[in-house]
Automatic annotation (TrEMBL):
GO terms for molecular function: 3'-tRNA processing endoribonuclease activity. InterPro entries: cyc_nuc_deg_phdiest (IPR054857), Metallo-B-lactamas (IPR001279), RibonucZ/Hydroxyglut_hydro (IPR036866). It comes from Hoyosella rhizosphaerae. It holds the Pfam family Lactamase_B_2. Residues 51-252 form the Metallo-beta-lactamase domain. This is Metallo-beta-lactamase domain-containing protein.
Length: 298
């Protein structure tokens, strides 16, 4: 059963003021903070009120991490950081997760004060080819993006350290090469991210005991839904319950899916805090106290 105090450990910042958040130092008292800001959360396509998928993860002594860069996310990102400072983490190469990257290439190449050096970009095997094709100005040509991006490839189960944040990628159950992540922050706090996936053991492993679980919920639990592509609200809630996460954040709800129905489905399965995220929501990830491992309030 969830303790009521879990809710207080996740701070949903006022979205009107989210752009004013002080981002230089994240140490609050004796706790090193990790924060996720929603840049875009519309599932599968951009929506009337949200870009497609994109999230900003910030922590002390850590470069700004941008998880996915779907349509419209580059614009939203400019409200928070200089896009030239971003390190990219790509879950997979469906268009709704990566097609603002050609815009980032333009930013890095042609901005009057261009960023120095290359940005690190982790993604699936074909990242350089796929983004190079999208960025090319000639059909059949691949733009060589190595002048501005240092593209690196995820290895299933091999963690990568970005400053104070360790990112552990796992292959998940989605048509192309796709990854979910377990991100461990400077204070040991854990943010699990499903990526786009159907129900699979890997996403359950990623979420195991996580303080916050950002989980896709692309459709309702209709009997005719496809297998191995996305999760229903019921499945997202079931995963959160089985993994005993602290807080469940639902995302990747497409414009054609009822947000209220998906949220109700998840709440019927998981009795901890559940939110359906919106653009500019920001959540601080803090270690969840348990009876066995209480966190001091000192
Ligand atoms: Zn998607
Ligand atoms: Zn996808």
């Amino acid at each position: 059963m969830m303790e009521p105090s879990h809710l207080g450990l996740v701070l949903a910042l006022d979205s009107q003021n989210a752009g004013d958040v002080e981002c230089n130092s994240f140490k609050h008292g004796s706790i090193w903070v990790m924060r996720i800001t929603v840049l875009g959360c519309s599932g599968s396509v951009s929506g009337p009120n949200s870009p497609a998928s994109g999230y900003l993860i910030q922590a002390d002594d850590t470069p700004p991490l941008v998880l996915d860069l779907g349509g419209g996310v580059l614009g939203a990102l400019q409200r928070y950081i200089d896009p030239g400072d971003a390190t990219l983490l790509l879950s997979h190469l469906h268009a709704d997760h990566c097609l603002d990257i050609p815009g980032l290439l333009v930013w890095r190449r042609y901005h009057p004060n261009p960023p120095k050096g290359r940005a690190i970009a982790y993604g699936p095997t074909d990242t350089a080819l796929r983004i190079g094709a999208a960025s090319s100005e000639i059909g059949g040509h691949i733009d060589d993006i190595s002048d501005v991006l240092d593209v690196r490839v995820w290895e299933d189960g091999e963690s990568v350290q970005f400053g104070g944040v360790q990112v552990h990628p796992r292959r998940v159950y989605h048509p192309p090469e796709s990854y979910g992540f377990r991100m461990t922050g400077p204070d040991g706090q854990v943010l699990a991210v499903s990526g786009d996936t159907g129900v699979c053991d890997a996403v359950l492993d990623l979420a195991d005991g996580a303080d916050v679980f950002l989980c896709e919920a692309s459709w309702t639990h209709a009997p005719d839904r496809p297998v191995g592509v996305h999760l229903s609200g019921t499945e997202a809630g079931m995963l959160a319950r089985k993994a005993s996460v602290g807080t469940l954040l639902l995302t990747h709800i497409p414009p054609w899916t009822s947000r209220d129905e998906v949220l109700a489905e998840a709440k019927a399965e998981f009795d901890g805090p559940v939110f359906a995220v919106s653009p500019d929501d920001a959540f601080e990830i803090a270690r969840t106290p348990t009876r066995e491992n209480p966190v001091s309030s000192a």
